[in-house]
Input
Amino acid sequence: MAVPKKKTSKSKTRSRRASSWSLDAAPKSRCTQCSAMKLPHRACQSCGFYRGRQVVDV
Output
């Protein structure tokens, strides 16, 4: 039966766990009105349209 010879250090354990914490860049989509890049499911910052209608006065 395999038994570790040495204790695993805190830094080794933490670095192994932290490898899955990295964040990816937020996905972008094109606005249908002005073709500017925007976050999906949010109103466009440049023209104020969301799902084909204006929801924010810009």
About this structure: The longest helix spans residues 10-18. Strands lie at 29-30, 37-38, 49-50, 53-54. The chain has a mean pLDDT of 92. The two ends are 68 Å apart (CA to CA).
